[in-house]
Every structure is written in structure tokens, then in C-alpha cells.
Amino acid sequence: MANHVGRLYALAVALVVFFGTWAVIAAQPWVTAKPDPHLATLAARERQLQRESVAVRRLVAQRWAVYRVELRKRQAQISAAHQTQPVVAAAAPSVRVVTLPPLTVTRTS
Amino acid sequence: MVRHAFRAMGTEIELFVDADDAAGAVAAAEAEFHRLEALLSRFRADSELSQLNRAGALDAGPDLLRVTQLALRARTETGGRFDPTVHDAVVAAGYDRTFESLPPDGPAGAPQACGGDVRVERRRIELDDGVHLDLGGIGKGYAVDRAAEILATAGPCLVNAGGDIAVRGGAWPIAVETSEGSLTLELSSGALATSGRDRRRWQRGGRELHHLIDPGTGAPADGDLVRATVVAPDAVTAEVWAKALFLAGGEAGAVEADARRLPSVLVSLDGSTRLAGGLQ
């Protein structure tokens, strides 16, 4: 009776060892996993698209900025055309060139 | 005559008052500079301007609100040559900390687009996504005007903040640098300011850069002027138009100064100096 039980245990252990070994060999851990060429292509494409999207966004921002500057110039021209006298002229400060020694100096601020 | 000098807003400030007892007014004028610097500096993380730039929207105090409104009006009047949204372009050019602490050289940044939308409604200021304000081109003029008002309570006065000058009463001889040396302007009312590429310069990527950004290119301006000095009724207007005429260039700047009757001194890279806007 004890021999039968022992044999059964031995058989079970042998089976476990056999399938375990089989699984390890089937997994081929000594072989370096090759990257999937499809995944590599997709990753490269994604990087390229990201670069292109950054460039496009920058271009759009630059063109938008140029447009806004041009728009403001035009608005300023229209606003100036509607004024008979420049605003600044009405309150012109008093200034003249003299040959006195200066008290202070104006420089690039 | 009382003269008092101190440093604020990254520059030397001079206060002159033609009065015997002006200590109170002088102290108040100096305090006003420090107060406005604390509110409007982009280099101070706790300034109201930095809070606005971080949050993108803010219920602003009266000074930030007023300066922002003045800057937006100047943007319209100058056709976009003066633009408070140059912040990111200035930072990209390397001017990302106080001028005194800038490294002499470093990697070059790409030009940044300017011209984003800024909305002001009552006390609320709202910036478009990615838009940040730099009020350095107008804040000093605003402070000069405020300080001159305070100082004028003591007597005829002059306030000079690194070249942005306002006077109240009296007649004040002020030197303007030209290519030949200097000429002296006597200013008895109003203000004058100078903008140019001859100071606040640094290098990035081995290239020399300066702080005057052309909003059209998002990079330091590359015109034919070294500097432009403009006389105007107040320092804010003088500062705005000094920059606008500098960006316009010698020829167009002189024509515009004449048309707008802005007395101006335009110093070119070729060594010539033009007087325009009725200045002779």
C-alpha cells in the first residue's frame, strides 16, 4: 500500500518536473527577444508625426501672430485716419535744444 | 536743490526737487517705486504680474489693471510695435532673470510668437492660453509718472529712472546721447524716454542679443537705429513711442515722429543723428 502511494507521488513529481522543464525549454529564455518590426515602424511613425505636429503648430502660431500684428497696424491706420489731429499733439510737452550743461542724462533704459 | 538716488526696477533712479524741505515727498516717491516694482516685476514670483502670468486670469489691483490697459492701448496705437505679450519671446532670447544675474552666454532659444489676446473687463484680466505679459516696457514709465506726481507736491521736480524722465515745473537740461557725443534738451514739462540696443545686451549661442523684441518676429529687433529718444506729455507715452520709433527705423521713424509731432532724437548705426517731430 505504502509502495503504491510512494509511486504515485513519484509519478506526480516526475510529471511536474517534466512539464516544468518543457515549459522552460519552450520559453527559450536564452534567445534574445527580437523587437516586433511592426511596433518599431509604428513608434518611428509616431515620433515623426509628433515632430510634424510641433512644426505645424509653430508655423500656425507664427502666421497667427503676423496676422494679428498686421491687423493691429491696419486698425491703427484706420483709427489715425479718423482723427483730425493726433492725440499727442494736443498736449505737446515743452522742449528745446540748449547749450547748457546737463543736470542728468537719458540713456537706453 | 535736493538730489536723491537709489536702485529700483533694475536701474538707478534719480529724484531732483527744487525745494528746501522735500524729505517727505522724496521718501514717498521712492516708496512708490518699490511698491510698483513689487506689483509689476516679472522677476518676482510673488508679484501681482507673476500671479497673473501663472494663473492666466486675475482680479487685478488698480495699478496692474491700469498698466495693462495702457499697454493694450499702446499696442493698438503703435500698430503692434509695442506689445506687452512679448514675455515668452524675451525669455526665449535669454532674458529670463534680472539683468544683473544673466549669464554672459548660453544656448540660443527659438523666436516666440507674440500678439496673443488679452481681455480686460472691469477688474478682471484674462490671457489667452500660452500668453504671458511683460510690462517692463511700460511699468517704469508708469512709475516715473506716479513718482513725479508725488514729488511735485514739494516743488518743481525731475524723476529719472534709467533714462525714463518726467519733469513737473522748472526747466531741466537733460543730455541725450548722440553719435557725435551728446546734445542737451531743456524740458520744462512732460517726459522723455530712450529705447535702444546699446545697453542690456547679452550673448546666446555666440550671438549678441538685446532686450527690444520686435513683436512681428518674436526676436530682438534688427533695424538701423542704435537708439531713439522721444519727448511726450508723460513717461508712459514717451517710453512706448521710443520703442515704436526704434522699431520703425531711422527713415520711417522720423516721418512718423513728424506726423505725430513727437520731438525725437534718432541715432542710427551709420553714425548719423536725426532730430524729428519739430525738434531743431
Describe the structure.
The complex is a heterodimer of chains A (109) and B (280). Chain A is built from 3 helices and 2 strands. Chain A has helices at 2-27, 37-82, 87-90; strands at residues 95-98, 104-106. Chain A has 2 domains: 1-33; 34-80. Chain B has helices at residues 23-40, 48-55, 62-77, 87-92, 136-151, 235-248, 250-260; strands at 2-8, 11-17, 57-59, 118-121, 124-127, 157-161, 164-177, 182-196, 201-204, 207-210, 213-214, 219-220, 225-232, 264-268, 273-276. The longest helix of chain B has 18 residues, at 23-40. In chain B, helix 6 (235-248) packs antiparallel against helix 7 (250-260). Chain B has one domain (2-276): ApbE-like domains (T-fold, Roll). At the A-B interface, helix 2, strand 1 and strand 2 of A face strand 2, helix 3, strand 6, strand 7 and strand 8 of B. Strand 2 of chain A pairs parallel with strand 7 (164-177) of chain B.
Q: In which range does the helix fraction of chain B lie?
A: 25-40%
- Strand-residue fraction of chain A? 5-15%
Quaternary structure of the protein: heterodimer
Largest sheet of chain A: none
Distance between the termini of chain B: 29 Å
Q: Structural class from helices and strands of chain A?
A: mainly alpha
Q: What is the topology, as strand order, of the major beta sheet of chain B?
A: 1-2-6-7-8-13-14-15
Rough shape of chain B? globular
- The number of helical runs of chain A is 3
Rg from alpha-carbon coordinates of chain A: 42 Å
For the biggest sheet of chain B, the summary is: 8 strands, antiparallel
* Poorly predicted residue ranges of chain B: none
Count of DSSP H/I helices of chain B: 7
Computed Rg of chain B: 18 Å
Work out the count of structural domains of chain B. 1
User: What is the N-to-C succession of helices and strands of chain A?
Assistant: HHHEE
| String of helices and strands of chain B | EEHHEHHEEHEEEEEEEEHHEE
